[in-house]
Specification:
Number of strands: 6
Strand order of the largest sheet: 5-2-1-6
Number of helices: 0
Shape: elongated
Structural class: mainly beta
Largest sheet: 4 strands, mixed
Order of helices and strands: EEEEEE
Strand content: 15-25%
Oligomer: single chain
Length: 85
């Protein structure tokens, strides 16, 4: 059985290739539900859609197994669609 953690969930977007310092900390976005509207950073007055930030080893009750036809989603292949990339 697959370990039911964020890193194995089909909805999790890894920060591999991200240059904002989070790639080394095992973080990613949970893309299970649409992004919510909120500030990008506390220091910036502009707002953008944001997904929940989770750690690779976090878990929740919405976990769904990633299958062979579900590609590993990373911020590297979402560049231009994710304000953190």
């Amino acid at each position: 059985m697959t370990d039911m953690k964020c890193e194995t969930c089909k909805y999790w977007c890894d920060y591999v290739g991200c240059d904002d310092g989070l790639a080394d900390l095992n973080y990613g976005d949970c893309r299970r539900y649409p992004a919510v509207f909120g500030p990008r950073k506390v220091s910036e007055p502009t707002a953008a859609g944001r997904w929940p930030l989770t750690r690779r080893r976090d878990w929740c009750g919405e976990w769904t197994e990633r299958t062979e036809d579900t590609p590993q989603t990373t911020t590297a292949n979402l560049k231009g669609r994710n304000d953190r990339a």
